[in-house]
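Prompt: I keep going back and forth on a fold encoding question. Comparing notes only helps if you start from a blank page. Show me how you would write down a chain together with its backbone fold. Please set it down just below, with no commentary around it:
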Amino acid sequence: MPNFEAFGRLLLIGGAIIAVTGLLFLLFGRIGFGRLPGDIFIQRGNFTFYFPLVTMLIISIILTLIINFIRR
């Protein structure tokens, strides 16, 4: 017999994580993440290339600090 209570809890936690991630993306977009100095943006004619190098480095550092804090 399936454990519906555990599956429901898993769905709620997953939904909360997705909602928080969406809110963070909205917040980061408003404060300028993705348009930082060091992000590579090339636009020529109908070709656009965007590589958020500095943004990815900052997000990586922040996530590393959060995960290290949680694991201790």
About this structure: Residues 4-31 form the longest helix (28 residues). Residues 34-72 form one domain. The chain has a mean pLDDT of 89. The chain has two domains: 1-31, 34-72.
